[in-house]
Amino acid sequence: MLRHELQPGKLIAGIVLVLTGVLYAGDAGGAWEIPWFVVIPLVTGGLCLAGAVAFLTGRVRRHRRRGRTGADLA
User: Fold this and answer.
1) Transmembrane ranges (predicted)?
2) Is position 3 within any domain?
3) Sign of the CA dihedral running 54, 44, 42, 34
4) Sign of CA dihedral 21, 23, 38, 34
5) Domain count for the chain
6) What is the pLDDT of residues 11-67, one digit of tens each?
7) What is the pTM of this model?
8) pLDDT confidence of residue 14
9) Is residue 1 part of a domain?
10) What is the 3-state secondary structure (H, E, C) of 1-70?
């Protein structure tokens, strides 16, 4: 089985978008009442959080990769 690296930014974005879908599905089913404008801050905030996490993940991976080359040991 091929392995892939974990991308937490995409994971957070997916979770936020699925949560938004579940909230609106519950609203459509009559389980609760959600105002139409809730989607804007929820999705925008979730995507901003996902972008920040992806940025930090990239920085950490770049830092670790640079440390493995041994260039700083010479």
Assistant:
1) 12-32, 38-58
2) no
3) negative
4) positive
5) 1
6) 999 999 999 999 999 999 999 999 999 999 999 999 999 999 999 999 999 998 887
7) 0.79
8) 97
9) no
10) CCCCCCCHHHHHHHHHHHHHHHHHHHHHHCCCCCCHHHHHHHHHHHHHHHHHHHHHHHHHHHHHHHHHCC
12 within some domain: yes
| Rounded distance between C-alpha atoms, residue 71 and residue 74, angstroms | 6
What's the rounded Cα separation, in Å, for the pair 50 and 37?
Answer: 21
CA gap 53, 38 in Å, rounded:
23
**Are residues 33 and 27 in contact, defined by beta-carbon separation less than 8 angstroms?**
yes
What is the model's pLDDT at position 17?
97
Identity of the residue numbered 26 = G
